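Practice problem: predict the structure.
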Amino acid sequence: MTAEPRIDLLDPGIFAQNAFWPVLAWLRAHAPVYRHAEPDGPGFWALTRYEDIVAVYADGEVFSSRYGMRLGSDAEAVAAVSQRMLIVSDAPHHTDLKRALGKAFGRAEMSRLEPLVRSVVREVLRDALDEAEIDFVDMAKKVPNYVICMLMNLPRQDWDWIGAMTI
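Answer:
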């Protein structure tokens, strides 16, 4: 029997170093539905088999997204947008939202959106060049936030604040 590796899915280091693969392989083989402890929280379930994940996604009554999408979410903030944002909605609301968004971001809209996205990427890269050191993830996550803010015609000075409020 393979020895249990150190399992700490809260450690960003295993993901930053791409060292999570053996942990996930061990979990798939030995504990595909795994209860992970949290030092200051209730813990969480980690599913590592495709079939189990598909079953959870298909059962919005038992495994709902409407109560939050990440550990430590502010319950009041989640309640304010529940069933109104894709990430915190379940069918049929999720399907309706996806259909509405699909039209705005579909193939026919790409020629209109491409120049906008290119300008956002240029701005993010230009700002990054001014920094002595950058975190690529912090830089890259600005792109979708800025694109959405631009599409919504929100004031430029609010974009970073909006991004910080929605992560």
